[in-house]
Amino acid sequence: MRRILLLFIALACLSLPATAQLGKLGKLADKASGILSGENPLSDEEVGSALKEALDQGVGKAVTSLSAQDGYLMSPYKILLPEEAQAIVSRVSALPGFGNVEQDLTFRINRAAETAAKKATPIFVSAIKGLTFKDAMNLLMGEQDAATRYLESNTSSALTGEFQPVIRAALDEVNANEIWAKVVAAYNKIPFVQKTEPELDTYVTQRALEGMFGLIEVKETELREQPALRNTELLRTVFARQDK
Fold this sequence. Notes:
Layout: H1 2-13, H2 18-36, H3 44-67, H4 83-92, H5 101-117, H6 120-129, H7 133-141, H8 146-173, H9 176-188, H10 200-225, H11 233-243
C-alpha cells in the first residue's frame, strides 16, 4: 500500500518545476508515512471515513447557516444587487414610489437565496459519498481549502441546475421579479438611457453558490487548524496526523 501511495505522490509532483519537485515530494511523502505508518497506522477506510465525516460536518453547518432566515442577508455572504442593477436603481430611486427600492430588492434576493440553499444538501452528500481513498489522501494532505475546491469542482454544475429554478421561483414568491420589472420599466422610460433588462435569477444563483463555498471553506480551515472542533475520535486521530 505504502509503495503505491508514494508512487502516486511522485507522479503528482512531476508537473511541478524541477526545483520544487524534491521539496514537495519529501513533504507529501512524510505526511503519507505519518498517516499510514507509526504506532497506530490508519487504514484506507479510516482516512476516507474521516474526510467524509469532516465534509459532512462542514457542509451541514454551511447549509444550515445560509438556509436559515437572514442566513445570507445578515452574513458576510450577503448578496448585493449587480453593478448594472445598481446603476438602474440609482436613477429610478428619485422617482415617486421607488425611494427604498434598492433595500427592498436586496432583502428579497437574499430571501430567495436562503430558500434555494435548502436544496444543496443532497447534492453535497452525493459528491461526498463518491470520495475514493485517493481523493481522501489528496484532500487530507492538500492545501487548506482542498476539500472545498473538490466539492466546488464536483457539485457546481448540479447545484446551479437545482438552485436556479428555485431562485427564479423564490424571486417570484417574494415579488422581487415583479418589483424588478417595474424598476426596469420605469428606467427605460427615462429619456436618453440605453434600454436594459439584466436577469436577476442567474446573478443571484452565482452569488448564492459563491457564498456557500466561501462558508464551507471557512469551516474546512477551522477543522484543520482547531483540534477542539474535531468532535469524534476518528476525526481527532486522522487529522492529528495531518497536523504533523
